[in-house]
Amino acid sequence: MASATEFSTLRTEIAGVPVIELAREFGTPAYIYDAGKIVERIQDLSMFETVRFAQKACSNIAILDLMRRHGVLVDAVSAGEIERAIAAGYATEGDPPPIVYTADIFDRESLEAVLRYGLHVNCGSPDMIDQYGERAPGGNITLRINPGFGHGHSQKTNTGGEHSKHGIWHEDLHDALRRADRHGLGVTGLHLHIGSGTDIEHLAQVCGASERLAREIGRTLTTISAGGGLPTPYRPGDTHADLTAYHRLWDDTRNRLADTFGHAVHLELEPGRYLVAESGYLLAEVRAVKQMGSNTFYVVDAGFNNLARPILYGAYHPISIAPASGKMESRAEQDVVVGGPLCESGDIFTQQDGGFVCKRSLPMAQIGDYLVIECAGAYGAVMGSNYNSKPLAAEVLIENGRPHLVRRRQTPQEVMQGEMIPAR
Ligand code: LLP
User: Fold this and answer.
1) Does the CB atom of residue 238 touch ligand 1 within 6 A?
2) Whether pLDDT at 1 is above 60
3) Is residue 54 lining ligand 1, measured as CB closer than 6 Å?
């Protein structure tokens, strides 16, 4: 049984580097990633033959380079993500394919990029099969099937069932196979992803659905993908999932299929959050401490422009205070609300789904102390925006005790880049 995760509300360092040094060198707000934690999570999954990182979770090219160096392949959902994978050193061809394009549509740029680089595609709509087949007949494709059920940490991250736009509806599998046939495309892969931030019980149901669908596709299949969705600990007491049991379910499934088909069936996993969530820390500075009636607010210089998960899903992130002195001072705790600088009252890190403000017990803090929002490596920086003309935060990767700047903070000029006033 995995042990329950604990989070401290007071810290002085991240991955062995003093917080005050990180703040001094890189400024705030900044995303700090602990490479060691990413490598640990990669190693947890070593029983899976192929781990394909869903880069949408954290696509900085330094993170992709780290994944590549540790044998992790990559998924791409846009022309931009394809370019990132290539910039990080991924080859365009190989077996299994180093980069797979997985989406529900081809926008025009992504179709051109896929054709230009000769990438393998995972089709999430019947139209994708036709659009690809018309341009590149005779190749091989993967089908992403919506099995008719799904689950996620929020309704917004549930990708299965008839309210989801994702995948090819399971009852349309034969139509999809006919379309592929018409273009001479071989269906070599089957992919199911029922949602993000789900649990092992729901994920386990996918095995059965996958096996049934695989048998309908038949022996052209050489790869099945379990998709992503693995949960990670966010709250005190959360545990890591039993991955050995999860792997066994999938391994048994693919072995039965291999017996039926008379050839090996390759197994892929496509995690995003699992690999990067715990590695990421959003470092901010406390800029105001104010009392609003019965509520004490810590107002920091990071907002939902930097981390949107709380305002979007009511997501919970552990929070700690790093004293400006750099010392582990003993401080009494108080119940506080943590907010950011944006001109919108929803800019609160301690909120529940529906926008209800919550209090969190945190150490007393003063202006100049640092506030660290933890488990922010997945869907953190990548969902950042320029709202209120705030620059995208700096990103820093700590590897072997050394911090490396992997994205510098945007300048005001970069925030306005591409805008123009029409000539009159
Ligand atoms: N594969 C596909 C096809 C996906 O759509 C996703 C996530 C993944 C894999 C990776 O899922 P993961 O292992 O990370 O759960 N912004 C939301 C999550 C959106 C997930 C989108 N797709 C959040 O902050 O929770």
Assistant:
1) no
2) no
3) yes
Q: How far apart are CA 8 and CA 374, in angstroms?
A: 10
Tens of pLDDT, residues 48-83:
999 999 999 999 999 999 999 999 999 999 999 999
3-state secondary structure of 225: strand
Give me ligand 1 centre to Cα 8, in Å: 27
d(CA 81, CA 83): 5
Ligand 1 pocket, residue 379 CB under 6 Å = yes
* Among 341, 261, 353, 259, CA closest to 306: 341
Residue of 230, 221, 222, 241 whose CA lies nearest to 270: 230
Kindly tell me if the per-residue pLDDT of 196 is higher than 90: no
Closest alpha carbon to 123 in 143, 139, 106, 101: 143
Rounded Cα gap, residues 310 and 8, in angstroms: 20
pLDDT tens-digit map of 20-36: 999 999 999 999 999 99
Residue 281: phi and psi, rounded to 5, are: -130, 130
* Contact call for residues 272 and 196 (beta carbons, < 8 A): yes
Asked if 277 contacts 378 with a C-beta cutoff of 8 angstroms, the reply is yes
The pTM assigned to this predicted structure is 0.97
Tokens representing 424? 């009159």
Element (H, E) at 29: none
Q: What values do phi and psi take at 342, rounded to 5?
A: -75, 150
58 is a catalytic site residue: no
As a whole number of angstroms, the distance between CA 363 and CA 320 comes to 8
Given a cut of 90, whether residue 283 has pLDDT beyond it is: yes
**Which conformational region is residue 352 in: left (phi greater than 0), alpha (psi within -120 to 50 degrees), or beta?**
beta
For the cut 70, the answer to whether the pLDDT of residue 92 exceeds it is: yes
- Bridge partners of 240, per DSSP, are none
For 17, other C-beta atoms within 10 Å of its C-beta total 17
pLDDT digits (tens, 9 = 90+) for 379-409: 999 999 999 999 999 999 999 999 999 999 9
Give the other-Cβ count within 10 Å of 347's Cβ: 20
* Whole-number pLDDT of residue 82: 98
**pLDDT more than 90, % of the chain:** 92
Of 123, 343, 358, 375, the active-site residue reads 343
